[in-house]
Amino acid sequence: MQDPIFYLTLATTALAAIAIVAMAGLRGWNGWLDLKRAELSRHVEQAAPPSAAARIEVADLKERIRKLEAIAAGVDL
What does the pLDDT average to over 30-37? Predict the structure, then answer.
């Protein structure tokens, strides 16, 4: 087993195996990054500004809260 061809073949095969595993890992990483980019772009597209009705409802709720806090504090409005 002192044959240099054997060790050269073994080293070449190990290097090829490492290269294949590294390429597969990088391809998987790039796929995962593409997936996350797609999720982020979908999230940005779906985030629409609130409608007028929603803003009116929020303002109404804030007004109710202000009145309830005033009642709790004993202040007449």
Answer: 94
Pairwise CA distance, residues 12 & 4, whole Å: 12
pTM beyond cutoff 0.70: no
CA dihedral 40, 42, 43, 49 (to 10 degrees): 140
Farthest-apart Cα atoms in the chain, separation: 100
Single-letter amino acid code for the residue at 4: P
d(CA 57, CA 73): 24
Residue 49: DSSP 8-state? P
Q: Is the dihedral of CA 66, 72, 73, 75 positive or negative?
A: positive
